Amino acid sequence: MRFRHLGQNHDALEYWSFCLRDLIPAAAIDHTTRLLSEGPITLHLSKPRSTKLGHFKRSNSSTYSEISINRDLGKQRFLFTLVHELAHWKAYRNYGRMIKPHGVEWKSLFKQMILPTVDDEVFDQELIKAIIAHLKSPKAASCSDPVLQRAFDRSEGLDIMTLDSVPIGSRFQLKNGRSFIKELKKRTRFLCIEIDTGRRFLIPGIAPVIERSLEKDEI
Questions:
Q1: Which of 148, 158, 188, 191 could form a disulfide with 153, with the two C-beta atoms 3.0–4.6 Å apart?
Q2: pLDDT, block means (10 residues), the chain with 219 residues
Q3: What is the pLDDT of residue 219?
Q4: DSSP 94-141
Q5: Which of 160, 118, 161 is nearest to 136 (CA)?
Q6: CATH architecture of structural domain 163-218
């Protein structure tokens, strides 16, 4: 599903308020609609992705820049991810494409844009503490911050096994059904080999997984 508006008028506020009503906490709708209404943006509700929660794609030929957010996220996590990606859009709009994706310009904008939502009407207390800690040095992707993501998991009542907890050399399965063997740690990600193809992928340690026993012909 995609939502799209040129922005910069009163109709944009009403449009985005309607679109966000079931996606983010009610107390954050006014602030977030103002951010979305600043320009021509497409918001794409994406199928769940194991390697990312959201993505900003700058406009080349189209009038609209596109932000995609995984459609299965809880309201608090959806809001946080959306503002993260909106900060990318605003950094691109203000400074052009020559800046670093997660440089000082993006970090400054992200803090300015998310802080008005950091209160107990939007996030629970555990999440507020985790978000404040995260904002001291925002990561390239919020899913690269395991403390923050586990706080989101607990706020959503989820008890999820993540790749971090799977032993090196063990087999695991992602939510999409693809099976891998965990090999080496690379900062916040792990180099993993896909069993069916033999191809190697870097997968975030926070990715939700199902641990599986190795079959005899895979040992």
A1: 158
A2: 87 95 98 95 92 86 89 96 96 91 93 96 95 85 78 86 91 91 92 96 89 54
A3: 42
A4: HH-TTS-TTSHHHHHHHHHHHGGG-STTTS-HHHHHHHHHHHTS--SS
A5: 118
A6: Roll (2.30)
Residue ranges per structural domain of the chain: 2-155, 163-218
Ordered DSSP codes for 152-179: HHHHTT----BGGGSPTT-EEEETTS-E
Strands 200-204 and 189-194 turn out to be antiparallel
One DSSP character per residue, 33-95 reads HHHHTTS-EEEEEEPP-SS-SEEEE--SSSSSEEEEEETT--HHHHHHHHHHHHHHHHHHHHH
Helix (H) or strand (E) run with residue 31 in it? helix 29-36
Q: Burial, 168: exposed, middle or buried (Cβ in 10 Å; 0-12, 13-18, 19+)?
A: exposed
Q: What token pair was written down for 126?
A: 């555990």
